[in-house]
Structures are given as structure tokens and as C-alpha cells.
Specification:
Elements lengths: L1 E4 L4 H9 L6 E5 L1 E3 L16 H9 L16 E3 H12 L9 E5 L9 H14 L20 H23 L7 H22 L1
Parallel strand pairs: 2-5, 3-4
Antiparallel strand pairs: 1-5
């Protein structure tokens, strides 16, 4: 945890400008995720950044992901962030100048995307999720495509779904069109969710 003089973000500058005589320190964590040990291992309240991606992978919905295997995932457990906030708040001396503390794993304890993928895959192989029929959900194998290629593929998928839905809506009532339209709607929602994840 290294102090940094003056934050560079607009919101931090605004707080600095309006603080008056109030001593101020800013703690800026990277991606906050589930706890390391407190209040218990893996504790998390609500889905944040990585959890929706991890669950989508475990459900077989996230068939691939645009990233490089070596890209860094700067994730910090929530209990370490709380500890850093308490440590900064508990400093005995006041601040004449604003100090900004970055709470991140960074180069000291790097987590690479490929390693995260392997950890998550290993977990779901040992503890597979099941579908509505109680069948284990098969895990996808990621190839880590370029972002442009991945987005182009998703856009083509969404256009194909829209085209198919228009065709299905032309079917007469009482046919299988309603059921197909419902399935296409779910498929479109899933594809849009993947697009949002990628963005």
C-alpha cells in the first residue's frame, strides 16, 4: 500500500477541492471481490464484477472471452480493502496534504487471465452446475479471441436471431412458432448478456 500525492480522477479532485480544513485520505481499490478470510472464506454480498462472468462460464453461457491469457486481473479481496481503509483511518497524525492509497495486487501478486480461467475451470469440473433436468452442464473451452473478432461474431449471432425471429413470427398461430419465438428470445437475451460482459 503506497501513498500517492493527489488523485487524478475528477471525483477525487472534487472531494479534495471542497474538503476545506478536514483531513483527507483517499483509498482507491482495484476490483473488489469475495473475502480472503473475514467474515468467512469466499464471503460476498451480491454479484460484482467477476462473479457474473464466472457464473456464466459455469452455466456454459460464456462460450469464450476476448482477452489475452497474460492480461492482468487486478482483484483484491473485500476484507483486505476493509483492512486498508481501517489502517488509513487509524493513522495517528493528520494530513496537511491529501494522500491517495492504491489498494491493488498489481505486480506484487499478479493474477493473469489464463490462470483465473484455469482456477475457475478446475472448480466447476470438481463442482459442476446442473441444468433443469439435473444434467451436468458442459464447460466451454476458451480460445481467448481478439475482442474485435469476438464482438463481430456476437453481432452476427444477434442479427441471425433477429432474422430468425421475424421468420418465426410469420408462422400461423397454433404451430410451434410461439415456442420457437420464446427460445429465440432467450437465446437473444443470452447473446446480449455476453456482449455486455465483453464490453
Amino acid at each position: 500500500m503506497q501513498p500517492e500525492r493527489r488523485g487524478s480522477r475528477l471525483d477525487a479532485r472534487l472531494v479534495i477541492e471542497v474538503r476545506g480544513e478536514v483531513p483527507l485520505a483517499i483509498v482507491r481499490p482495484s476490483i473488489i471481490e469475495s473475502s480472503l478470510s473475514q467474515p468467512q472464506v469466499g464471503w460476498l454480498e451480491g454479484f460484482r464484477v467477476a462473479e457474473p462472468l464466472i457464473m456464466a462460464f459455469g452455466r456454459g453461457l460464456l462460450d469464450d472471452f476476448p482477452a489475452t491469457i497474460d492480461s492482468l486481473m487486478d482483484i483484491v479481496p473485500v476484507d483486505l480493502v476493509v483492512g486498508a481503509v481501517l489502517a488509513v483511518a487509524g493513522r495517528s497524525r493528520g494530513w496537511d496534504e491529501v494522500e491517495v492509497f492504491q489498494v491493488a495486487s498489481g505486480a506484487r501478486n499478479p493474477l493473469r487471465m489464463g490462470e483465473l480461467h484455469d482456477i475457475v475451470r478446475e472448480y466447476f469440473v470438481a463442482h459442476p452446475l446442473v441444468d433443469r433436468r439435473g444434467q451436468e452442464i458442459a464447460l466451454p473451452t476458451w480460445s481467448f479471441p481478439r475482442r474485435e473478432d469476438y464482438m463481430r461474431r456476437l453481432d452476427l449471432t444477434l442479427r441471425a436471431v433477429d432474422w430468425s425471429d421475424r421468420l418465426v413470427r410469420q408462422l400461423p398461430l397454433g404451430s410451434r412458432g410461439g415456442r420457437w419465438s420464446s427460445r429465440l428470445g432467450q437465446f437473444k437475451a443470452d447473446a446480449q448478456r455476453l456482449r455486455n460482459f465483453a464490453e
